[in-house]
Specification:
With 225 residues, the chain is an alpha+beta fold. Helices cover 28% and strands 31% of the residues. Helix 5 packs across helix 6. The chain is globular and about 60 Å long. Bound molecules: flavin mononucleotide. The site of flavin mononucleotide (FMN) has 16 residues, from strand 2, strand 4 and helix 3.
């Protein structure tokens, strides 16, 4: 980064970056008993109100931790909802894959700024079935399949050219054949035990409703902003 752009960055007036949230809020009575079902309602609304094609309502920040407790976060795409789980796809040998092998606890966060909404989930992660991984992998464009097949995600590479050549070589070798699902690639499902719905309100008196999984099903609480 040039010195000039560094300087202009440092003059940013962060105090002036202030937004007032003026939404209607969460009506407790109308919330569904199951948080995944409630999530589905909010997700559909986030998609319907999407501000444009550039916006990805299914983008979520995924936090994982290694066994020493060091945390890593990155964005992944939500690619399915199960009965009590949410699903995403990735490389099993990536940093997140290695962390999840050692420590299956994870958290995800969705930010839907066009609605002043946030959803957080915490729980435990397991791999999806081979069938689910394979079906999803082959539903992707062929270019994305080739890319996933040659990428050893999160490991050091010599150059971008090396990656491009590996992709082109595999494409040539396969010809008309389908790209096989890589052994190190597939889905994960997060089964949440805690889900929070946040709606921004006036004067920072936001609405926060949490669902906690208990022996008798889900319990719901309103918590302080
Ligand atoms: C909008 C967006 C969507 C992404 N979706 C995915 C995804 O679905 N799966 C994935 O493995 N990486 C996805 N990535 C890349 C990840 O953020 C990350 O760089 C990658 O998974 C490696 O993370 P790790 O080294 O912590 O394992 C996405 C990035 C962005 C910005």
């Amino acid at each position: 980064m040039s010195k000039k752009s560094n300087d202009s960055k440092s003059r940013m007036d962060f105090q002036a970056l202030r937004k007032e949230y003026q939404t209607d809020g969460i009506d407790d009575e109308r919330l569904l008993d199951n948080p995944i079902e409630q999530f589905r309602v909010w997700f559909d609304a986030a998609v319907a109100a999407s501000p444009g094609e550039w916006f990805e309502p299914n983008a979520m920040t995924l936090a994982t931790a290694d066994s020493s407790g060091a945390v890593t976060a990155r964005i992944v795409l939500l690619k399915g909802l199960g009965e009590g789980s949410i699903r995403f796809f990735t490389n099993y040998e990536s940093t997140k894959g290695q962390q999840l092998s050692n420590n299956p606890a994870a958290a995800v966060v969705f930010n839907w700024p066009h609605q002043g909404r946030q959803v957080r989930m915490e729980g435990s992660v397991t791999r999806t079935s081979h069938h689910i991984s394979e079906t999803y992998f082959h539903s992707r464009p062929r270019g994305a399949q080739l890319g996933a097949a040659v990428s050893r995600q999160s490991s050091v590479i010599q150059s971008r050219q090396q990656l491009q050549e590996a992709r082109d070589r595999l494409d040539r070798e396969l010809g008309d054949q389908p790209v096989p699902l890589p052994a190190n690639w597939g889905g994960y499902q997060l089964v949440p035990t805690k889900v929070e719905f946040w709606q921004g309100r006036l004067d920072r008196l936001h609405d926060r409703l949490i669902y906690l999984a208990g022996d008798d099903g889900w319990q719901r609480f309103r918590i302080s902003p």
